[in-house]
């Protein structure tokens, strides 16, 4: 016997009341209503997701910050911040800040949680204790590690020499350089040589030219839709497929005689409780991150140094390098300033770094934010919104890092490697790779854009955990530094 019409009506009315009550609490009565932001953000996250899906989340959120200020509500339960106070509270309070959100599930490897994708900060701390010493600056600057970086920089310079009279695609070759450097640090003597061998270059290309972001976003936000669309989605948005990289990492992680300075040696040591698949997942995660972040950061920086407006900076950098041929790479003030300004202008990880507000809620930058709210900062905005700290934020100006006044404030707002206990563990390796390469290149060459390049092709394509150029190419012309002076015409 079916339900009576009256019972059906009562159940329907109850459901509508429950839905209405939830909407009322989420919109009209939400404690986030006092936070500035677009009206639609009170009701839906679809606008944010649309920009995310179209690789423009960072630009969209930054536009909201420019309109509404350093605190902006970007979705019904999500707030973005762009101040030093917020960075300190969200990412540094209690040492490691707030716990990560489930958004990081997008980046799990082989179904495993790596150090990057571990949500709980206590679990993260246990993983970090196993891995962090291999990324300590004292380990990076030791000869076995540093010699490997210098050797790969020399291989890159060979490519520059061979290109004289034509042009070199920096996007490809800088990612090869980053690939060879990170695999040296992870696996030596089993690292790659993609700057010189096509087989290894194919692995790099598989990772670097990946276009699976949209597919993964659909799978995260709507697993049911992802399953229903099936093969149709495959043609509209490719899934992540990296068989060459998988085979390389899984095969290499089966080796048991990696050099003592490598991450693989550390993870196979007696103090590690990781099984072989955990080790492989961690290594693949570090490898992919090491390729994209360093490769993208160097690509955008060298493109900027090659622009007519920045040729004086290029000439000044070369003068410092030639005047100090025996100085350590981390003892060159203008080189350091160039790298810091490059990372400020072109942060290699553009994505917001979302966290859950802990139980009991928190006060963040003057606003009471309830527990469970998703809060985040993105480096692109943190590096630009406070113009008292970074005047003319869109201008590439290495000199801003050489002024003693305001140094502490600039450092507090420098977010290229995130902050706190969950900041980028590989920052010392990345800085060494960048500085060693820039020194090797600009000691010997001048660089100018290839005439075929356009500014639009170098716009940022926001892949969340990487910020590659829209055209996925960056052609520069290399000339021996002694052949002719730089022209600013």
UniProtKB/TrEMBL annotation:
Give the species: Lasiosphaeria miniovina
InterPro entries according to UniProt: Cyt_P450, Cyt_P450_E_grp-I, Cyt_P450_sf, Cytochrome_P450_monoxygenase
The signal peptide stretch is 1-22
Keywords of the record, alphabetical order, are: Heme, Iron, Metal-binding, Signal
Q: What is this protein called?
A: Cytochrome P450 3A13
Question: Which Gene3D superfamilies does this entry report, sorted A to Z?
Answer: Cytochrome P450 (1.10.630.10)
Required co-factors = heme
The lineage's top-level taxon is Eukaryota
A single GO molecular function, which one?
iron ion binding
* Sequence positions that bind heme: 424
């Amino acid at each position: 016997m079916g339900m009576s019409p009256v019972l059906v009506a009562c159940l329907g009315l109850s459901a509508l009341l429950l839905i209405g009550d939830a909407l009322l609490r989420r919109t009209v009565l939400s404690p986030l209503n006092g936070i500035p932001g677009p009206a639609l953000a009170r009701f839906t996250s679809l606008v944010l997701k649309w920009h995310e899906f179209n690789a423009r989340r960072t630009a969209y959120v930054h536009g909201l910050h420019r309109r509404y200020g350093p605190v902006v509500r970007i979705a019904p339960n999500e707030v973005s911040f762009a101040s030093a106070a917020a960075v300190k509270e969200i990412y540094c309070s209690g040492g490691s800040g707030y716990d990560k959100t489930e958004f990081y599930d997008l980046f799990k490897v082989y179904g495993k949680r790596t150090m990057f994708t571990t949500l709980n900060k206590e679990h993260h701390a246990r993983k970090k204790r196993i891995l962090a010493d291999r990324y300590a600056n004292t380990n990076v600057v030791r000869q076995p590690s540093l010699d490997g970086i210098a050797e790969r920089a020399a291989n890159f310079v060979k490519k520059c020499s061979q290109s004289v009279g034509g042009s070199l695609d920096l996007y490809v070759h800088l990612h090869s350089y980053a690939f060879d450097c990170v695999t040296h640090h992870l696996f030596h003597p089993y690292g790659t040589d993609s700057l010189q061998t096509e087989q290894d270059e194919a692995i790099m290309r598989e990772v670097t030219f990946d276009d699976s972001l949209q597919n993964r976003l659909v799978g995260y936000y709507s697993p049911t839709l992802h399953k229903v669309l099936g093969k149709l989605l495959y043609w509209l948005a490719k899934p992540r497929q990296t068989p060459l990289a998988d085979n390389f990492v899984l095969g290499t992680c089966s080796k048991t005689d990696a050099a003592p300075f490598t991450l693989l040696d550390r993870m196979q040591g007696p103090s590690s409780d990781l099984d072989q698949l955990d080790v492989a997942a961690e290594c693949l995660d570090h490898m992919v991150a090491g390729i994209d972040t360093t490769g993208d950061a160097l690509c955008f920086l060298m493109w900027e140094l090659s622009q007519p407006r920045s040729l004086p900076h290029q000439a000044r950098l070369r003068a410092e390098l030639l005047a100090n041929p025996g100085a350590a790479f981390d003892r060159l003030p203008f080189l350091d300033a160039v790298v810091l300004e490059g990372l400020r202008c072109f942060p290699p990880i553009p994505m917001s770094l979302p966290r859950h507000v802990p139980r009991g809620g928190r006060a963040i930058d003057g606003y009471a934010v309830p527990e469970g709210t998703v809060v985040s900062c993105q480096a692109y905005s943190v590096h630009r919104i406070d113009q008292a700290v970074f005047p003319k934020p869109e201008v590439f100006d290495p000199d801003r890092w050489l002024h003693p006044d305001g140094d502490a404030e600039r450092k507090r707002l420098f977010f290229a490697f995130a902050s706190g206990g969950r900041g980028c563990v590989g920052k010392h390796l990345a800085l060494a790779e960048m500085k060693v390469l820039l020194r090797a290149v600009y000691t010997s060459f001048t660089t100018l854009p290839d005439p075929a390049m356009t500014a639009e092709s170098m716009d940022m394509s926001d892949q969340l955990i990487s910020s590659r150029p829209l055209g996925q190419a960056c052609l520069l012309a290399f000339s021996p530094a002694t052949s002719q002076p730089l022209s600013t015409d």
